[in-house]
Specification:
Elements lengths: L2 H15 L12 H10 L5 H14 L3 H5 L3 H8 L5 H18 L8 H4 L7 H10 L10 H10 L7 H11 L2 H17 L18 H5 L2
Helix pairs in contact: 2-3, 2-6, 5-6, 9-11
């Protein structure tokens, strides 16, 4: 089976099993999503969602974050890990967006990745979820599942992103990534994948090779 065919079948199966392709990070505006995504690095989304209500209550606007005291932000996000760098980046992002982008979260990967602490994974999430553009968020779940399906043969996030952009229908790519995360959590575990329960097992190369 060709990679393109596998990709299309995976898209359709994911749609059936995970109809609600939504980001698990909770945010009310683009900047809050950007902040939450920065906090999620090396941290679970569930933990981030516990931390952000108090953070966003104290700093409800981009302007508030730009003027925030670094130590205070560090205390509020401490449990997310790497809190010093994350606090510095969040305050830096707010100031840079206000100064360079007129207070609007940028809508391209090129502009987003000029912000402190924003890599391609975060930029793709914003571009896809906020602006509805084709995007591939190459997180650990997507990388693992794409390799197991046989769509890619690399763990390099940039290569995975670029190769999947060639294989996935543009209008499906962002939702596919969210569904891959849900699938990774539900069935396609890194250590003990539940292939016998998986709707993709008939064409997943990992499952086929391990029968």
């Amino acid at each position: 089976m060709e990679k393109q065919e596998i990709a299309l079948k995976a898209v359709e199966e994911f749609k059936k099993f995970y109809p609600d392709a939504i980001c698990s990070l909770e945010a009310e505006d683009p900047f809050q999503l950007l902040v939450a995504t920065r906090l999620s690095a090396q941290c679970t989304d569930a933990r981030v969602n516990l931390v952000t209500p108090a953070l966003f209550k104290k700093y409800p606007t981009m302007e508030a974050f730009a003027a925030a005291d670094t130590k205070d932000v560090e205390e509020l996000i401490h449990s997310c890990g790497f809190f010093r760098q994350k606090a510095k980046d969040i305050i830096g992002m707010a100031n840079m967006i206000l100064e360079n982008f007129g207070g609007m979260v940028p809508d391209t990967i090129e502009k987003l990745t000029t912000l402190p602490g924003v890599g391609r994974k975060t930029a793709n999430l914003i571009v896809g979820d906020v602006y509805g553009k084709p995007a591939v968020v190459a997180d650990t779940h997507l990388i693992r599942i794409s390799n197991r399906l046989g769509l890619v043969e690399t763990k390099d996030p940039l290569k995975v992103e670029m190769q999947l952009k060639d294989l996935l229908p543009p209008e499906e790519s962002n939702d596919f990534c969210h569904r891959a995360v849900l699938h990774g959590r539900a069935l396609c575990d890194a250590r003990k994948p539940k292939c016998s329960e998986c709707p993709l097992s008939d064409f997943c190369q990992f499952s086929i090779n391990n029968k």
